[in-house]
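Dear all,

This email documents one entry for the complex benchmark we are building for the journal club exercise. For each entry we list the sequence lines for every component of the assembly. Then comes the predicted three-dimensional structure of the complex as a token string, followed by one or two observations. Please use this as the template for your own entries, and keep the labels exactly as they appear.
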Amino acid sequence: QQQVKQSPQSLIVQKGGISIINCAYENTAFDYFPWYQQFPGKGPALLIAIRPDVSEKKEGRFTISFNKSAKQFSLHIMDSQPGDSATYFCAARRGNNDMRFGAGTRLTVKP
Amino acid sequence: EAGVAQSPRYKIIEKRQSVAFWCNPISGHATLYWYQQILGQGPKLLIQFQNNGVVDDSQLPKDRFSAERLKGVDSTLKIQPAKLEDSAVYLCASSFSDGPSDEQFFGPGTRLTVL
């Protein structure tokens, strides 16, 4: 079932630091790679997404880096804030078929 | 714009009992998804509807799970009979269509505990 491997499982970062979460996928047919943010008691919410024809996408403090040859992609959160403390999921999707999620990373940003 | 609504938010049942969850997607969204999220894991797709037709139910345990989307709007997911391993959060999501980059909007989920 798991086609997307995510690491680390948990991450603690100081306020102002950089948070980095990594994902690796197996199926080269995946063509859409979103990241979701989930707060306790809430459903996941789309944070940022990338398609494999670009190597990087930046939106504010959030950046996705994509390495097609290595089948890896990562989320970088610059200037991490306590309000960023949440669980982050990477995912991968092929066409309009089901999205495969990673197992999640619990991020804690200490003030 | 109202988000995806789900009810109930919490449900506790005994094993072998039945349970049903309800989802009301965002108005105008043709595609509806049910996901199962076991504690400590990412969501896993159970079933995907396009309007009132099933697009993908390959990961739905059809011996005990069923879902319907009558009239292409609201949807219900049923488990009958429930097992201990069904304890999870059941998330409903919707999107405008089923395009690969169409954003999926998730509801708050229903937390099911099977004792």
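Observations: The mean pLDDT of chain A is 94. The first strand of chain A starts at residue 4 and ends at 7.
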